[in-house]
Amino acid sequence: MHESRSTRGRVSRALAGLALAACASAAAAQAAAAGQAPSLGQAFEAAWARQPEAQALPARRDAALARQRASRAWSPEAPALELAARTDRLNDNLGTQELEVGVAMPLWLPGERARSEALAQAESDAVDSLALGARLRVAADVREAWWGWHRARIEAEVASLQLDNARRIAADVARRVGAGELARADRHQADGAVAAAESGLAQARASASTALQRLRAVTGLALRPADAGDAAPEPLPERAAPQAAEHGALRELADRAEVADRTAALAATQRRANPELLLAATRERDAFGEPHRQSITLGVRIPFGAGPRADARIAAARAEALAARARLALERERLLAEREAAGARVDSARMQLAAAERRLELARESRGFFEKSFRLGETDLPTRLRIEAEAAEAERQAARARVELAAAISALRQVLGLLPQ
Predict the structure, then answer these.
(1) Which domains are present in the chain?
(2) Which residues contact 299 (CB under 8 A, 6 or more apart)?
(3) Residues 6 or more apart whose Cβ sits within 8 Å of residue 63
(4) Is Glycoprotein among this UniProt entry's keywords (predicted)?
(5) What string of H, E and C letters represents the secondary structure of 167-236?
(6) Which residues of the chain have pLDDT under 70?
(7) Do 350 and 377 touch, CB atoms closer than 8 A?
(8) In DSSP terms, which residues pair with 280 in a beta bridge?
(9) pTM greater than 0.85
(10) Using an 8 Å Cβ cutoff, are 221 and 85 in contact?
(11) For 409, which DSSP code?
C-alpha cells in the first residue's frame, strides 16, 4: 500500500510538472506574439513541449503503471479457455460423445513474481528520470542557441555603433575638407572607414540572423530580432550543489542500470516457460441410450528448460547490466571534470569582464581626448580613426564579455543538472 501511494505521488508530481511546462510554453508563445522578450526559461519550456519525449511521457507513465499491475497479478499471463469435442458420428455412429471444457492457468516460476514486481518498479522509477535526462539534453541545446544568438546580436549592435561613429567622423571630415582645413585624401580615408564599417555591420547582421533562425528551430517560437531583451545571467549556483548523485543525467543512467540489473535477475529465473495448471470438466457417453457421465480433470503442464537459449538470454541481460554500470561510472567522471572546467570558466569570464570594462573606460576617455584634439587640428585623421577603432573594439569586447559571463554561468548550471530559469 505504501509503494502504491508513493507511485501515485510520483505520477501526480510528474503530471503537475508537465502541466507547468505546457503553461510556460504557452506563456512564451504569447509573449513572443505580443512582442515581449521571452526569458531563457520560457524558451526552454517551449522547446521541451515540442519534444517527442514530452509528448509521449503520459503514455509511458500509463505503461509503467500497467506493468506494475501485471506484476502483482495471480498469473504471469492471461488464462486460456480450452474446448474439445469427440464423436463417432462420421465413423461407426454408435453414439459416442465427449465434450470437455477447461481453463489453463499459467503459473509463476519460483521467484519470478517478486523479480517481475521489482523490475516493474524499477521501470516505473526510470520513467521520470528518463524524462529529466531528456529535459537536460534539450536545455543544453536551448542554452547553446540562446547565448549564440546573444553573442551575434551584441556583435551586430556594436557594429551598428561603429558605423554611426564612422559616419559622424566622415561628415565632420567632409565639412572640413570643404572649408579647406583637410585634404581630399583625408576624406577618402574617412569614407573608406565608413565602407569598412558597413561591411562589418552586414556580416554581423547575417550572423545574427543565422543564430536567430537556429534558436527559432530549437524553441519553435516566432522570435524576432527585437525580442532579444537583455542578456541577464541565470542565478549563480553553489559549486557543490546539487550533489552529484542528484544530477539528472546520473539519475537517468542509474535508473537504466537498475532496470538492466532487474532484467538480468528476472531472466535468471525464466530458464523455462511457465508451467500451467489445467482444470477441465468432461461430459461423455459411450453409445446411444447410455447415460452421460461427468468428470473433473486437474492437471499440471511443466515445460522443460530452454537450455542454451535461456543461457544466451541471461548472458545478454547481464552484459547490458554491466554496460549500463560502466556508462554510469564514465558519466560520473565526465561530469566531475566538466564541473571543474565550468567553474574555472566562470572565474575566467569574471576576470575578463573586469578587464574589458576597465579597458572600455580608458578607451572612452581617450576617444574624448583625441576627438577634442582632432577638432582643434592637433591630431591627424589616421590617429583619430585608430583611436575610434580601439574604442569600438573595447565596446565590443566589454559587451561580449558580459554575454560570455552569462553563458559561463549557464554552462555551470547545465553541468550541475539545473534547468534554465
Answers:
(1) 2-72+108-271+306-415 (1.20.1600.10)
(2) 277, 278, 280
(3) none
(4) no
(5) HHHHHHHHHHHHCCCCCHHHHHHHHHHHHHHHHHHHHHHHHHHHHHHHHHHHHCCCCCHHHHCCCCCCCC
(6) 1-36, 226-231, 239-245
(7) no
(8) 102, 297
(9) no
(10) no
(11) H
Rounded to 5°, the CA angle 391-394-395 comes to 90
- Neighbour order of strands in the sheet with 276-285: 80-87, 97-106, 276-285, 293-301
Pick the closest to residue 412 from 352, 350, 319, 328 (CA basis): 350
Q: Are 143 and 184 in contact (CB under 8 A)?
A: no
How long, in residues, is the chain? 421
pLDDT at 293: 85
Q: Give the three-state DSSP class for 293.
A: strand
DSSP state of 72: T
Residue type, 358: R
Grid cell of 6 as nine digits: 508513493
Exposed e or buried b for every residue in 350-388, given b needs 16+ CB within 10 A?
Answer: eebbeebeebbeebeeebeebbeebeeeebebeebbebb
| Calpha distance 319→308 (Å, rounded) | 16
Cell of 79: 488464462
